[in-house]
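thread: overnight batch results

M.L. [08:02]
morning all. the overnight job finished for the chain we discussed friday. pasting input first so we're all looking at the same thing
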Amino acid sequence: MIHISPWSACVGLMAGAGRILKPGGILYLYGPFKQGGEHTAATNAAFDEYLRAENQQWGVRNLDDVVAVASAQNLTLKQIYLMPANNLSVVFQRSFVLLTCHNRVLNQLVFAQQFCINLYQLIAEVEKSANG
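M.L. [08:03]
and the structure it wrote out:
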């Protein structure tokens, strides 16, 4: 699906899979891919030209780019299988996040902690003013 859609569809697919898949869940992709930025067969290069002639946002994707987008969504490349007609089966797995926090969550926790400290200090000042 990612070769017959804009690159943003791949990015969206990975983001959605990163949100929806449970840890250990599998995302499976099938199709032609470039490896190391190069086509793996002349037929894939011709197919890429055909796709881009149909729609300039379509095309055979570089596997390294797909893996990078997947990794940013906690999807780990598990296996690549060679398939007929110069295609690949690419298997990603949703990572198990045990003791790590995402930066966004960590920032929210730091903000909440600072808010509580400020609130505690304000209450202490109000109590001191009321008693003093």
